[in-house]
Amino acid sequence: MKAVILAAGKGTRMRELTNELPKPMLRHQGKPILEYIVAGILAAGVRDIFIVTGWHAEAVENHFGDGSKWNARIAFGRQVVQDGTGKAPELAKAFIGDSPFLLTYGDILVPPETYPQMLRRFGEGNFAGVITVTRGEDVTKGGLNFFDEQFCLKRLVEKPSAEQLEQLRRDGWLKPNAPVWYNAGIYIFRPSLFDFTAMLQKSPRGEYELTDAISAIVAGGQKLAGLEIQGRWVDVRDPETLAKLERGNIEH
Questions:
Q1: Among 48-62, 156-170, 236-250, which is the least confidently predicted range?
Q2: How deeply is 146 buried, as exposed, middle or buried, from its count of CB atoms within 10 A (0-12, 13-18, 19+)?
Q3: Which CATH number fits the domain that encloses residue 47?
Q4: Rounded to a whole number, what is the distance in angstroms from the first to the last CA of the chain?
């Protein structure tokens, strides 16, 4: 198992905080957010990590170096054109080789035990990958996931509008009192993911979307196992969230 961390974006919602730093390098209790993610992945026994950089790439590359400080192997690839999450993982294709890999965004904080739980879930069957979810988030800001009885992905709706949510209720996808599963942005994939990212077309937002590749995997009859994140999930999306984290109002 290897790992890929997507850390290329500027994080425009962070406003002036990211003028000189990429968002994953903003500090929480004295350490970059990205360092917590790297530490969690390493604690799960994954020691080969590829970080996709972009905005102020050198800040990430200089901090982590070749990974020897962490007894790891860390490599980098720069996403020169910020054209979406669908194409960013392709920079790691040669690094991944034929290994399955954990894929995470560089601004998602979860309890460290999440990563070994994902590895265990991946080993429970012949899965094309694992998709993590959490409850209680506003699904219009991310992915809405539906699962079968084995908690394998049936359908993913990216950033559904109020009209789409109403239609999903009418069609019986959204049921009263049933959990609403929000895409948590941490995955495991096999290298076959790249067969699907290669075929991506730009979305209406003008970007290549990773979620479109995920939908294509499911449409192709492959199984993606679901896993609910236990404990607090934090998308460090804006200054307010970062401030709450710093005050200790958010546990992770």
A1: 236-250
A2: middle
A3: 3.90.550.10
A4: 24
Is 252 domain-assigned? Answer: no
pLDDT tens for each residue of 59-80:
999 999 999 999 999 999 999 8
Q: Which tokens go with 60? A: 């990430």
- Containing structural domain, residue 87: 2-247
Tell me the pLDDT band of 15, cut-offs 50, 70 and 90: low
Residue 69 forms part of a structural domain = yes
For residue 169, how many other CB atoms are within 10 A of its CB?
Answer: 12
How many Å apart are CA 73 and CA 84, to the nearest integer?
Answer: 26
- Give the number of residues written for the chain: 252
- What average pLDDT score do residues 36-43 get? 96
Residue 104 DSSP label: E
Q: How far apart are CA 10 and CA 17, in angstroms?
A: 10
Q: Which amino acid is at 100?
A: P
Residue 45, classified by CB atoms within 10 Å of its CB into exposed (0-12), middle (13-18) or buried (19+), is exposed
List of long-range contacts for 85-88, beta carbons under 8 Å, 24+ apart: 85/6, 85/207, 85/208, 85/209, 85/210, 86/197, 86/200, 86/207, 86/208, 86/209, 86/210, 86/212, 86/213, 87/197, 87/200, 87/208, 88/6, 88/8, 88/52, 88/210
pLDDT digits (tens, 9 = 90+) for 133-180: 999 778 888 889 999 999 999 999 988 998 999 999 999 999 888 899
Q: What is the count of structural domains for the chain? A: 1
Q: What is the pTM of this model?
A: 0.93
Alpha-carbon Rg of the chain, whole angstroms? 17
Work out the number of other CB atoms within 10 angstroms of the CB of residue 52. Answer: 25
C-alpha dihedral (67, 68, 69, 74), degrees to nearest 10: 0
